[in-house]
Amino acid sequence: MSRCIVVVPTYNECENLPLLVPRILAQDPRIEVLVVDDASPDGTGKIADQLASADPRVHVLHRLEKEGLGNAYRAGFTRALELGADIIVQMDADFSHPPDALPLLLEDIEHFDVVMGSRYLRGITVVNWPIERILISWFGNWYVRHVTGLPITDTTGGFRAMRRSVLEQLDYQRVHANGYAFQIELNYRIVRSGARIKEIPFFFLDRTRGTSKLTLRIGFEALWIAWWLRAADWLGRL
Ligand SMILES: Nc1nc2c(ncn2[C@@H]2O[C@H](COP(=O)(O)OP(=O)(O)O)[C@@H](O)[C@H]2O)c(=O)[nH]1
Ligand SMILES: [Mg+2]
Questions:
Q1: Residue 92 sits in a domain of what CATH number?
Q2: Residue 92 scores a pLDDT above 90
Q3: Cβ(156) – ligand 1 distance below 6 Å
Q4: Residues 179, 167, 154, 127: is their CA dihedral positive or negative?
């Protein structure tokens, strides 16, 4: 691995970001961070700028309005590729994806094209989520796996490392979905591309600062995207 850029989408993460960025950078000197902020009203974008001016390993992409996780990642991937990343990592800003797990992802990416963190590979490794949220997530995963046939355990997961070549081949701009469904569709396209994939277990922690941006609409998008993917693939429209 030569250069790894961790893409962190943020919307109102002013409490998390100043703690998260140093923790990420401390994992390995080859790691850089790209914050993709959608004009957070709480000033997260300004904090990101301060972090960037203090350290050349921090980059910021400002977007004009809140356009959802999928849009933030699409733009973030493009910028990370422009910056010359060899490895691109996706990570939430709320510490749900533990920075300490980064070295494990980076170790395995030497031998695989994509390394996916999974909450459901070794039982259920989700910590301090309310039981109803674990149930929704677990059954949601079961449903998506059965509808799409995806051979991975965490279909809605968004903690992964990818080689540059995977994103270049994937045409990720064509990923339609925006919320959780973005992760499902990206996973689907990754599997379909024939990439060599490894899943590794990690402990997903519920956020302790800031608030979730999950909405019912995002949940429903995930339900229908599974059928859409199946149909579009069958029709050769993917
Ligand atoms: N740039 C950007 N980031 C977002 C948006 N929606 C969510 N995020 C970020 O995406 C990550 C996951 O969102 P989160 O609210 O934690 O979702 P949850 O973990 O499912 O509750 C966090 O880092 C959020 O700040 C958005 O519209 N734009
Ligand atoms: Mg979260």
A1: 3.90.550.10
A2: yes
A3: no
A4: negative
